[in-house]
Amino acid sequence: MISNDVVLLHDPRVAAVPVVDSGEPLVVARLPRLHVSGDPQGSRVRATVAHRLLRADAALPAGLHLALAEGWRSPGAQAAIVARYGSRVRLDHPGATPDDVERLTSRYVAPVAVAPHVAGAAVDVTLVDGTGRELDLGCPLDATPEESDGRCFTDAPVPPAARALRTALSEAMSAAGFVNYPTEWWHWSFGDRYWALVTGRPAALYGPVAA
């Protein structure tokens, strides 16, 4: 379970954060790419995000490396994920109010207007070993709360080996300036509205960007 004091992306406080877009371009992140997303554009992120990913990769313990599942995502792709998962939430929670559905949906996918991926500010990452083999961090990357029985939540109980890997990932990404979305161990962002709210910045650096 996620504590009620955890800020989710549907929270009005996220949407209230102003955006002063830096105008940074999308660039290709120089990390190994996992084939989670079929969109070749998903390897792109804002320039500073790409630089910080390299810093995070260099900060990992010996033998561990970052691998990128997805960076930038088009507004249309984001809307499709929201609709698909929102339909599942409504089926699983027939008594839920529209606000409940929005809140539960935002555990897994952000509303388009505030989505960090759409801004090129977020990455879904995991760890691989020196041979490029994907490591087990307690549940598959991109597993929903239902599919993972809650193990997708960053602080969920997982086996010690997976917990050690999550800790290594968290320390490296945090040291590089990223913030984690606590319902998804793999989701980290820099410069978006959620990042600004969590870190106390007056404005986001990146807003939605077209391909």
UniProtKB/TrEMBL annotation:
It catalyses: D-alanyl-D-alanine + H2O = 2 D-alanine. The keyword Protease applies. InterPro entries: A_A_dipeptidase (IPR000755), Zn_M74/Hedgehog-like (IPR009045). Pfam families: Peptidase_M15 (PF01427). It comes from the Bacteria. Keywords: Cell wall biogenesis/degradation, Dipeptidase, Hydrolase, Metal-binding, Metalloprotease, Protease, Zinc. This is Dipeptidase. The lineage of its organism: Bacteria, Bacillati, Actinomycetota, Actinomycetes, Micrococcales.
